[in-house]
Amino acid sequence: MAFFKRFESTIDNGIGRRRFGYIVLGLIILFFLWFPNDSSQSNYAKTVFISGFFYAIMASSWALLAGIAGQFSFGHMAFMGIGAYVAGLIARDGIVFATLGIAISPESISAIGAIIIGTLIAGLVGLVIGWLLLRLRSAYLALFTIAFSELFRIMMLTEYDYTGGSNGLSLRPLLQIADVDTARQVEYYLMFGLLIVCLLVMHWVANSPIGLFLRAMREDEDAASALGVNVVRYKILIFVFTSMIVGLAGAVFYSDVGSERIIPEQLEVLQMSLIIAYAVIGGMESLVGAAAGAFISRYLLEATREVVIALPLGLTTSDGSGAFVWETGAWRYALFGVIMVFTLRYMRNGLLHPIITWFSGRDLIMQETVSKRKSDDDYDDQPEAGDE
Fold it and tell me: Residues with Cβ < 8 Å from 50, sequence gap 6 or more?
């Protein structure tokens, strides 16, 4: 403890916590850039990291919608599926506007073009839902998005001839690289780059005047409206924006980058609950915290599929091994649930909130603000010269 206090004092009096945080963040980014170049890492490990990047985008975008804007939605996986399915269907069947007499063949649409169209369609559906529901309050958005997500999943499951049903739908590969190792490395950098870009854009939105309006609406819609904020407009805007973010992430991830095909099972409410849990554990009001919580949680869930337990006192298993391999199965999700309950009970801002707060120096800013307010209050409490 004494060493940590000396270290904290050195940081505060020297380069500063925020600069030190930037250094640590830079080292973390360098690690992710170096990781796929390590020859000892298997393609499976790279795939786990790619999956972690995908879920980091999903969790951070949900944190922007629910944690910062205060709009609790269960539709993230549905909008992700819309982006992926639309991109896959357009790349396979093309576009036909019968009423206008326009037909675009699938050969004339690139994988990038299909991804862009899928992203726009996800935003368009988000616009329709937002226009219908975001004028209302309370739990209407949450209830409707649960029903919408389940309805969309059932449609993708039952329309077997068109969507592939339970077998899933294959998207056009975004990358045409024959060598498996090279392809996986390029896919890794692509998904990591998409995560960085999405975080930067969402960070800009959260720290712009729009973000200020969103926080004001989250705290008190009536007060924000009284101060001139168009509450409905900004609620729809952030809903459409996050719908496009997850639609883009789904279309890219399932374009043979993180998975070969998208299946309706990925659209279940259970998957949405995992996204929410990742954001809660990382920190709902922090985009970086939610992204980090999703990546770390996803990695730990994969790493704990099998747990090796060394047997004491020279005991051996039936095959003569000195260790017992426990296939955790669903038990790892039970442990994950316990961690989430602990987070909600004792650390509601997320397990990573203290670390992020320390590195950003926000606790020092809060202390200075509180001390200034106290000094102003003490000054106001002093009697004026003519009062005695």
Answer: 187, 188, 191, 253, 257, 258
Rounded to whole angstroms, the Cα distance separating 357 from 374 reads: 22
pLDDT digits (tens, 9 = 90+) for 146-190: 999 999 999 999 988 888 888 888 888 877 777 778 888 888 999
Question: Which residue is listed with tokens 């992020």?
Answer: 356
Q: Are residues 173 and 201 in the same domain?
A: yes
DSSP three-state, residue 152: helix
Neighbours of 382 (CB within 10 A): 7
Residue ranges making up the domain that contains 30: 1-39
pTM equals: 0.85
Does residue 303 belong to any structural domain of this protein? Answer: no
Specify whether the CB–CB gap between 63 and 79 falls below 8 A.
Answer: no
Q: How far is CA 1 from the centre of its chain?
A: 34
Place of tokens 């854009």: 201
In a domain, residue 283? The reply is no
Q: Same structural domain for residues 60 and 161?
A: yes
- The owner of tokens 């095909």 is 261
